[in-house]
Design a protein that fits this description.
heterodimer; A: two-stranded antiparallel ribbon; about 75% helix; about 0% strand; globular; disordered C terminus; B: D-Maltodextrin-Binding Protein, domain 2; 2 domains
């Protein structure tokens, strides 16, 4: 019954729409995050009733997760960490004059992913949250290692350079007071380094500023003309990629439902999965492959539904945004926790309804105004480059209202420029920063829990089915990237595979 | 040009005297020491709109996290003492000095309001083979080095509660697993990654009501009306009365040197805001004890809290620097 509340009350409908619209644009601007927008909304909607307040927040959340892809595709600056993987193939498409197609595919795929996430939330929330709770520190650690192995698929070209970039990212992530013991690490007694290096500043600098600097090389070249005849992908395209989008959405829901991980890791893992399972893409990954766009976008939007799963069933936030929404529910006099679904089932169905509505609005706002947006890429470089710089500076400042972050952003921008110039991939740096804490904290928790005994640690891995599966996945993925594996594979199936490929 | 500068300066002088007369004449910044969605954040975001109404001004709240809240505290210390930057924090700064986290604490600030106090409690995974505090103590003695306690870093509530238990019961042989906060630790408790967690009652109450965790003891001298069936720790061991009641607290502060009339206005506004029925109900639901104190009463509360806790940690060997170095007297 309450599922329909949002559809039947024009006021709520309008608020979801307004939220989604605002979310798309907040999400598109790097540095302005959905987390920030939702926490501002708490004060803003303080005196409202709980339904309108939640409607607006859900709209912003759904729209914002999608909006991050906009600037990733058009300018190579991910609007949010969850859009990093989108930039890898989305931007090359824009450079070929296919920005319209890229945005169209992204929108439709985000919509599909969003629905799968909401579907799982509506149907299987208790089952998924029980599963998510089973993850022990060692499992989070194995998941982080699995993530680190993505360096292989994110480094276009030299693996060695990719490993260097990934290690650099992990080191950047370790700067500052260690969150478990508050000991200073890599701070060299600079007060400035005590709080760590803002990861968003690193991301904006590495992608945005380095892009602006790189474009200076071609400042006299004409901008790419954008083809905008085909924006909405055809049914056959959607159908063709349906199996992949189902798989990547599943990844999104699960990673989203885990209390320690969110859409950013989900999108990167989905990208890696797509690269692994796509046998012969129409275009190479990193060169504008459709699959490289579909995977992260379905995953990060299905992670939204996923993040609500532990929130609604247990009162445990699935990510930063749901953490704030739990706070909002408290302020509005509800008691989010394991009893919420029992005491107030109507709240659950209302949220599912609002998510469905936000997802529909997202596709509407996403598919309109594309023509206008693609014009951005067609702007002359003398306008585009300053625009990228401006956006980067405003974005970096907005994260913490800190000018220091702007300096970091500019510094990493120049560094990123030289990295790109010498063929070092940037994806692994960001990957390293994202995973640094997940890996570090959980390794320490895991080994402390076993009284710092490696024997007991491995015993734990081999006696838990979940840990064992993750451990085997790590080993398999690792081995499959070594030359030994390729040689062994050739020796075993050598003739057969060669004959089929010829 | 000269005349313009002069004019601008005199205008500035005029407005700044006017500011003293009619505070607040611009937006006030509220710096929240902890992240969005946490306890401190929820408390501050729910009391401030009521205080704003009483004050007739706007308070723009911003979360500034990092360094156990020290980043936010140092930020506010660096701003002017004009009442336009408020620090919204929890108890942690009172332990910065002895924990080596900084050289500033609430002694550099004037309390506007100590809003409320929390009550700690010990909760366990429902499958744990002990049901009360006494059974837990016996179990730990019978199985040394097996029970995993959740922790939130030096100076956090779990470390203080664990220090109390160690001081009274003798050193416990348990494993202490660090988490980012009580939220993630209580999640880990439900998943079985840790066995026991000292947490603030408000954070654990919904889990206890749903049977996802079981209460072993409430760390107070009287039973809590929110959980009347949960025994208090003094029922098991009267020695805890020396340290209890103890608990984390939330407060709003301004830097020392802020004009007295501004302080008086802010104190009146937050005292009014804290009385609002919506806020009282929210705090009650989360099991917090309302305090709403300011002035000399708040100063006395802060220094007593600091003495007791600092020396407790020092005696348990957890402090990095002795409280003596900072002139914190033994209670």
């Amino acid at each position: 019954m309450n599922f329909l509340t949002v559809f039947t009350q024009p006021q709520l409908l309008m608020l979801v729409g307004l939220g989604t619209f605002a979310g798309v644009y907040v999400g598109a601007i790097p540095g302005l995050s959905v987390t920030m927008a939702v926490s501002i909304l708490i004060s803003f909607t303080f005196s409202w009733d709980v339904y309108p307040a939640i409607s607006l927040m859900i709209g912003i959340y759904m729209g914002g997760v999608y909006g991050g892809s906009r600037t990733a595709i058009l300018l190579n600056i991910p609007g949010a960490p969850s859009a990093i993987a989108t930039a890898l193939d989305g931007y090359p498409m824009a450079k070929r004059g296919e920005a319209g197609t890229a945005i169209g595919v992204t929108t439709v795929m985000s919509f599909i992913g969003g629905f799968i996430g909401i579907g799982v939330l509506a149907v299987a929330a208790p089952v998924v949250s029980d599963f998510a709770l089973k993850f022990q520190p060692r499992d989070y650690m194995l998941l982080a290692i699995l993530g680190i192995l993505l360096v292989g698929s994110l480094s276009q070209g030299s693996l060695l350079k990719g490993i260097f970039a990934g290690a650099l990212g992990i080191a950047i992530g370790a700067v500052g007071r260690d969150p478990l013991t508050f000991t200073e690490r890599f701070t060299f007694d600079f007060r400035l380094l005590e709080g760590g290096i803002s990861f968003i500043a690193v991301m904006i600098g590495m992608f945005g500023v380095s892009e602006a600097l790189l474009q200076l090389h071609h400042v006299d070249k004409d901008a790419v003309r954008q083809k905008i005849n085909r924006i909405v992908p055809s049914l056959s395209t959607v159908k063709k990629h349906l199996p992949l989008s189902l798989q990547t959405s599943t990844i999104g829901v699960i990673i989203g439902a885990l209390p320690g991980t969110g859409g950013d890791i989900a999108a990167l893992m989905a990208y890696d999965h797509a690269k692994r399972v796509t046998k012969d893409p129409e275009r190479e990954f990193g060169d504008g492959a459709m699959e490289g766009l579909i995977a992260p976008e379905t995953a990060n939007n299905s992670a939204v539904g996923g993040a609500f799963i532990p929130m609604m069933t247990l009162g445990i936030p699935g990510d930063a945004v749901t953490a704030i929404m739990i706070g909002a529910l408290f302020i509005h006099g509800l008691n989010p926790g394991p009893m919420l679904m029992i005491d107030q089932p109507d709240m659950f169905w209302f949220i599912v309804g609002a998510l469905v509505m936000a997802n529909i609005f997202m596709v509407i706002f996403g598919l309109t105004g594309i023509k206008l947006f693609t014009k951005i890429v067609e702007m002359p470089r003398s306008v585009l480059i300053p625009l990228i710089m401006l956006l980067s500076i405003v974005g970096a400042y907005a994260v913490n209202n800190s000018i220091t972050d702007v300096y970091w952003m500019l510094g990493f921008g120049v560094f990123g420029y030289f990295m790109r110039h010498y063929g070092y991939p940037l994806g692994p740096v960001i990957l390293g920063v994202i995973l640094s804490r997940l890996l570090d904290d959980n390794w320490r928790r895991a080994i402390i829990s076993e009284r710092e005994d490696l024997g007991r640690f491995f015993e734990g891995i081999f006696t838990s089915p979940l840990s064992l599966v993750l451990f085997i996945a790590v080993i398999l993925i690792f081995v499959s990237q070594t030359p030994l594996w390729t040689r062994g594979k050739r020796m075993l199936l050598g003739r057969k595979s060669e004959s089929t490929s010829k | 040009m000269k005349r313009f500068v002069f004019g601008a300066l005199s205008a500035l002088a005029l407005t700044s005297t006017a500011a003293l007369a009619e505070y607040p004449e611009k937006e006030i910044q509220g710096i929240i020491q902890w992240g969005a969605g946490g306890s401190t954040d929820t408390v501050m975001r729910s009391v401030t709109p009521h205080a704003e109404a009483a004050l007739g001004g706007t308070v723009v709240m911003q979360n500034m996290t990092g360094g156990v809240g020290a980043i936010a505290l140092n930020h506010v210390v660096g701003e002017d003492a004009d009442g336009y930057t408020l620090l919204m924090g929890a108890e942690n700064p009172m332990l910065y000095k002895i924990m080596g986290l900084g050289d500033k604490d609430y002694n550099d600030f004037t309390p506007i309001s100590i809003l409320a106090r929390g009550t700690p409690m010990l909760v366990a995974n429902p499958d744990a083979p002990y049901n009360t505090y006494a059974e837990l103590m016996d179990y730990i003695k019978a199985n040394p080095g097996e029970v995993r306690f959740g922790a939130t870093g030096p100076g956090g509530l779990p470390s203080v509660v664990t220090a109390m238990i160690n001081t009274i019961e003798g050193d416990l042989d348990v494993i202490s697993v660090p988490y980012d906060g009580d939220g993630p630790a209580l999640t880990a408790l439900q998943g079985g990654a840790i066995d026991v967690m000292p947490a603030v009652l408000g954070a654990a109450i919904e889990g206890v009501r749903a049977g996802k965790m079981k209460p072993l003891a409430v760390f107070d001298v009287e039973r809590n009306e929110k959980l009347p069936d949960a025994p208090v720790v003094t029922e098991f061991n009267a020695a805890f009365e020396t340290y209890l009641p103890w608990g984390p607290f939330f407060g709003v502060f301004v830097k020392n040197g802020t004009p007295d009339d501004v302080i008086a206005k802010l104190q009146a506004a937050y005292a009014e805001g804290a009385k609002h029925p919506d806020f009282v109900e929210l705090m009650d639901n989360r099991g917090f004890t309302m305090m709403g104190i300011s002035g000399a009463e708040a100063d006395a509360f802060l220094s007593k809290w600091q003495q007791g806790t600092a020396w407790l940690l020092q005696d348990a060997g957890l402090a990095k620097n002795s409280p003596e170095e900072f002139g914190i007297a033994r209670p």
